[in-house]
Design goal:
The structure holds 2 protein chains of 2 kinds. Chain A contains 13 helices and 2 strands, in the order αααββαααααααααα. Chain A is mainly α. Chain A folds into 2 domains: 34 residues; 220 residues, Orthogonal Bundle (MetI-like fold). In chain A, strands 1-2 form a two-stranded antiparallel sheet. The longest helix of chain A has 32 residues. In chain B, α6 crosses α8 and α10 packs antiparallel against α11. Classes of the chains: A mainly alpha, B mainly alpha.
């Protein structure tokens, strides 16, 4: 009995720290494969090279166009999703009547649940032709299309985390403002929003992290052109889409294969930094 | 000029409502469009037959079965590991550096891009462990990806069980493990179930992690073992939408509908369990 108890507790402790082990393992395995590229290509040429020609002889592995593609799509998605996401969070947390609030929250959860490939498919049949017609561009597969679609994928993250932050502002703040004669909107704008600001910032960062890492939807609607991006209404290719689109065709152990893992390292580091920073903001508010 | 605060409040609240509708309405739109266009494709043959003529006809049975196996495998891995991990965090961990490191690791694990999980699965399971592109490798990759979902919701469920339950059990002479097993876990079960079902929904819909670890482009037979490749619904939808020209759009919408139905059903079941037990709660 004593032995059984001990072994269960041992198992609990092992699983408890498993997450650390897994994150470390992910990074190590990305590194193990990705680092082999840097024997032939310098880190500077990799990060700042302007040409991504992985299958020519010799291959060129500059990911600057892909980084800029990701930045462009992310920028567009942020501009669209941050104001709407934060506004929706304020509405749901502070304005909506109790019953409507539950409906809206379930709606947001539903949006988060729709698989990215389904959104990508819907984007292909609805947004892509619309962009082509509305902006008179030769193809609807553009960075803008990706931004529009990704904005909707970032919103659930932004809304739910910002809503939590607004909700956790102490009631006494609100009561104090009301007692001074402030209206509900004045209270929200001058008291609640500033008090929740670091949580809202964390929500925005996590939303952006989601956008940077999103793969399928963005691959299906941005046109996959791995050249230097020329603007919002041109096809681009993101870091994630490059890995997803090309890994199937590489030969294991080739430079191309290692280069895709090196992109994986870059993606891992970006999202790692974003998540850490978001966590710092979330915890500043707890003081 | 100063605007009357009552009027500016009206304007502000209206704008906030409009912004909220912009976020919510497309969800309804996506669901309506897929149901409307896809329902015509759904019939017995579509759900139970093999695809024919290069996926342009026939059914999607192997994709449904493949997704079922993948999700089952993912949850068989993620549920025990995630639950034990949650028990550690809720019942054992002290507030020290190790606990903080675990918390940060979970946050980061939740934030790793899905395609990076795919790369990891390829490097570790497919190549290093020599599982090859297989249901086993794909399931484990998906399992790792949904681990944070299972841990976080199980932990919340455990934390919500009142401290007094544990104190009473311990004071009656039960050991810590017995206390967790008989006094804590039964009360946390609905929350754990909710998290598990949400994880299932997530695993069923993900494409990028299975691209290089299991997914077969076109494999009109059912997998025979966990070392077989398999088709899967989300990947099948991706292939139909982008790689196969001249597919009847009904087949695409139908596939999207089946996938969406599975994922949303999981979510609705999870929400139903949550609200049912919230009402029943006695403390």
């Amino acid at each position: 009995m004593r032995f059984k108890e001990k072994s269960v507790e041992f198992l609990i402790r092992v699983c408890g720290v498993a997450s650390i082990f897994i994150v470390a393992l992910i990074f190590l395995f990305l590194l193990k494969e990705g680092i082999q590229l840097f024997g032939r290509v310098s880190a500077v040429d990799f990060l700042f090279g302007r040409n991504w020609y992985p299958i020519s002889e010799p291959g060129e592995f500059g990911i600057l166009p892909l980084i800029l593609g990701t930045l462009l799509v992310t920028l567009g998605a942020s501009i669209l999703s941050i104001p709407f996401g934060v506004a929706a969070a304020v509405y749901i947390s502070e304005v909506a009547p109790a019953r409507f609030k539950e409906v809206l929250k379930s709606g947001i959860e539903l949006l988060a649940a729709i698989p990215s490939v389904v959104l990508g498919f819907i984007g292909m049949v609805t947004i892509v032709p619309w962009v082509k017609a509305a902006f008179k561009v030769p193809t609807g597969l553009t960075a803008f299309t990706g931004s529009l679609l990704l904005a909707f994928m970032a919103m659930p993250t932004i809304v739910s985390i910002a809503e939590d932050a607004l909700h956790s502002v102490p009631k006494s703040y609100k009561e104090g403002a009301y007692a001074l004669g402030a209206t509900r909107w004045q209270t929200i704008r001058r008291v609640i929003l500033p008090a929740a600001s670091s949580g809202i910032l964390a929500a925005i960062m996590l939303g952006i992290g989601r956008v940077v890492g999103e793969t399928m939807a963005v691959m299906m609607v941005t046109g996959n052109s791995p050249s230097m991006p020329r603007g919002f209404f041109y096809p681009v290719r993101t870091l994630t889409a490059t890995v997803a689109a090309e890994m199937g065709e590489t030969v294991q152990g080739s430079d191309h294969y290692f280069a895709l893992f090196a992109i994986g390292i870059v993606l891992f580091l970006i999202t790692f930094a974003v998540n850490m920073a978001a966590d710092l903001f979330l915890h500043r508010k707890k003081k | 000029m100063k605007i009357d605060p009552k009027i500016s409040q009206k304007i502000a609240f209206t704008l906030l409502l409009l912004a909220t509708l912009v976020v919510i309405l497309p969800v309804a739109l996506v669901i309506v469009v897929i149901v409307k266009e896809g329902i015509g494709a759904i019939n017995w043959e579509f759900l139970t037959a093999m695809p024919r003529s290069g996926m342009r006809a026939g059914g999607i049975l192997p994709a449904i079965v493949g997704t079922f196996y993948l999700v089952l495998g993912a949850i068989l891995f993620a549920l025990p590991v995630g639950l034990f991990s949650a028990i550690y965090l809720a019942e054992y961990a002290k507030d020290n550096w190790l606990n903080r490191a675990v918390r940060l690791a979970i946050i980061n694990l939740a934030g790793v891009p899905s395609v990076v999980f795919g790369l990891f699965g390829l490097a570790l399971f497919v190549t290093f462990f020599r599982f090859g592109a297989s249901i086993l490798a794909g399931s484990l990759t998906l399992g790792l990806m949904i681990l944070p979902v299972v841990i976080t919701s199980s932990r919340e469920a455990l934390d919500a069980v009142p401290k007094s339950f544990r104190q009473v059990s311990l004071s009656l002479g039960a050991t810590k493990v017995q206390t967790i097993r008989y006094a804590v876990l039964p009360h946390a079960l609905p929350g754990i179930l909710t998290g598990t079902i949400l994880g299932i929904g997530r695993a069923a819909g993900e494409t990028a992690p299975i691209l290089f670890t299991v997914a077969a482009f076109y494999l009109p037979r059912l997998p025979k073992s966990i070392f077989d490749q398999a088709m899967a619904l989300p990947y099948h939808l991706y292939v139909l939408s982008t790689q196969v020209p001249n597919v009847d759009s009904k087949i695409r919408y139908g596939t999207a509908l089946v996938l969406l139905a599975i994922v949303l059903t999981m979510n609705l079941v999870a929400v139903a369990i949550r609200s049912h037990f919230r009402k029943k709660k006695k403390w």
